[in-house]
Amino acid sequence: MKKNFIAIIILILLSLFGIILIQVQWLSNLLLVQEESIYNKIERASYVVTSDLSKQVSTMPSLHLKGQSNLPVMPDHFSFVIPQDKMIADYYTSAEIHNKIRKAFNKEKLDNLEFEFAIANRYDQFGTIEMQSQNFLKKLFDSTHSRRIEMPILPDNSESMEGLSAYEHLILVIPDFKTQVWKALAWMIIGAILFTLVVLTAFYLTVRTLIQQRKLSAIKSDFINNMTHELKTPLATISLAVDALRNEKVMGNAEKSTYFSGIIKEENKRMNKHVETILQAGLMDRQDIRMSMELKSAHQLIRDVLSNYELQLTGRNATVDVFLNAKNDRINADEVHFSNLVSNLVDNAIKYSKDNIPLHLKITTHSTTKNLVIQFEDNGIGMSKETSKRIFEKFFRATTGNVHNVKGFGLGMSYVKTIIDAHKGRIKVDSVLGKGSTFIIDLPLGNVNQNKDESW
Question: Is the pTM above the cut of 0.70?
């Protein structure tokens, strides 16, 4: 079982590692493809804008003749003259150019793409910026994170003037290009991360379930062993008592017959108690405990339980101090289940008392405006912090492991917690290893209008 468990963990880890590796590689490739796609869209949008601008403005030089038009055309009678043609800035404002670029981007599904732009005149060697957006120069020189695209603004008759260069250019700067590409892939990245988290969660739940199953398997074995031990003891005692009753000497002695009959009756009660405990555990699993709530005196119920333990406490040389100081001890409780939870706490103090020191059990109560507080304090073996956290778990037994050195099924404290929850109360434990434990119960005071019959 252990080898299979390790093999399953290794296989799951390898599968998880492979999935994450594939996801990372896929995202890396997708980023490159998306960068190229967005860049191509930007180029197409830029071409649309420059084509639109070229319809309004011709930036090419014009040919003019000197003299009369009817003179013969001689080489010395004509020359090229470059007039002062109007530029883009003379026709459009910066806001209008921005809107043209934004509309072109929107058609390419680049609605959220940020950009800066400028119209530059390339007539001289270095070029002159005619107009620019607010942060153009700042983003232009950020070559590490920005992407730059430059498109010439060609005149409409550029085909008939092949070889001549445009004097004006549209310059686009896409700031933080990679970041914007990542934003465009946001949903895909989020989906990939969520999918990976789902796989990690499934892996965690699978491993946790396997560990819990191993624990449950061990607990099941311990429980069966404990139950067998607890049931075999009274059965063996009853068998011996029956054999004794068949003895002729005992049959003729009424006192001895009564004695052995009493043993059989007590052991039968003990077996019934064990069976009832197991049945209660089944009811707790189904959350089907029937509660008959009535207004009761908690003090009286505590006294009744202590009277039932008088012989056991005397046999242990135990001292019980009872300080029932609550001015109001009336609670809405199921008499049977409330008595059982008090009985479990007293029995717990007896079972986990020290062998060489007499048990000292102290029970106190006090009331607040809304609650009754009951405290059980003993000088037993106490518990570690780890044990204190697990004391209310089903089948857990506060010993050195689940070894059968203390009688019981490990259901008592789980039952106590269940019943207190059903009474809408709280319980906490404060324990120091080697010094003893204190259980504090907080229950709401009685309400005469509460329904008598409830199920939990």
Answer: no
